[in-house]
Write a structure and sequence with these properties.
Blueprint: H1 9-23, H2 33-48, H3 52-55, H4 61-105, H5 115-135, H6 147-169
Length: about 170
């Protein structure tokens, strides 16, 4: 079950806490819903910021790899919720896009945005970033397996956050 996409996330976090408590029963360690949610969010923030020393603070390389895999799965669950929420907001975005298009059509020719110029600037910026990455030492280069997906998810979440902020302001 996905606590990020549920109507009752508290109940699901409580269930996760119960499972962790049962697993750590020999150590007399109890985890409640709040503690579970906050710790997960903290680890997820470290993972999103790519603060890998904080994630590696305790444990072996094998444990770190497991932790990274689990955090990636949690990030995907959070992104699924974002996709569900964005589907609800799609109607609003379609209306906004239509309004913007109509406004641009009504602009005089010199005031219209130059789309081809924007696209070439974005492509040039992307090329510069790639050349910087190729010049960087191997340790600083992101892996291609999950970092590309991670950056796409992160940019999606940032765009969604900005859209929600604009919606709240209106």
């Amino acid at each position: 079950q996905n606590p990020f996409g549920s109507k009752e996330p508290g109940r699901i976090w409580a269930r996760v806490g119960e499972i962790i408590t049962a697993a750590l029963q020999t150590e007399n360690f109890e985890v409640d819903a709040r503690r579970c949610r906050e710790r997960t969010m903290l680890l997820l923030d470290y993972y999103k910021k790519q603060d890998f020393p904080s994630l590696r603070r305790f444990g072996t390389e094998r444990l770190y790899a497991q932790k990274e895999d689990l955090l990636h799965e949690v990030l995907e669950l959070e992104a699924e919720r974002g996709l569900l929420v964005s589907a609800e907001g799609a109607k609003y975005q379609d209306e906004e896009r239509q309004t913007r298009t109509v406004d641009e059509l009504n602009l005089p020719e010199q005031d219209k945005p130059n789309i081809t110029q924007m696209l070439s600037a974005e492509a040039e910026e992307e090329h510069e970033q790639m050349s910087e990455l190729s010049a960087a030492p191997t340790a600083k280069r992101p892996c291609q397996c999950c970092c590309q997906t991670y950056s796409e998810i992160l940019s999606f979440l940032e765009k969604r956050s900005e859209a929600e902020q604009r919606l709240r302001e209106e």
